[in-house]
Amino acid sequence: MQEFLLVFRRDSETVQAQLSPEQMQAMMKPWQDWMGSIAAQNKLVNSGNRLASDGKVVKPNNIITNGPYVEIKEAIGGYIIVRASSLDEAAELSKNCPILTIGGNVEVRALIPMD
User: Fold this and answer.
1) Torsion angle of alpha carbons 98, 70, 49, 85, nearest 10°?
2) Cβ(74)–Cβ(9) below 8 Å
3) Phi-psi region for residue 114, left (φ > 0), alpha (ψ -120 to 50) or beta?
4) N or C terminus: which one in the chain shows less Cβ crowding within 10 Å?
5) pLDDT tens digits, residue range 1-17?
6) What's the whole-model pTM score?
7) Where are the domains of the chain?
């Protein structure tokens, strides 16, 4: 079994602006259910975290800017790490991710150990 990073992306301008605090709270149950189903299959390695909307970007020559990249509309909202036998299986696990219901997407990437 390999480990895969599932990165949750969403349109930071329109979707975030449209969701009320009540709607955001209502999204928690589908997320818990989806992640619980992955855990029940013993495929959830790390339940991940949500990411704050602000941050810093460190560039060469000791340049630090506000970030992440404010010039793009899509933002990373969070991530989890799953265990699967292949990239295709990890992508299949992503098909029921709640972010898809609000127009977001899931990027699936294999983690390569640093041996």
Assistant:
1) 70
2) yes
3) beta
4) C
5) 999 999 998 876 655 55
6) 0.81
7) 2-110
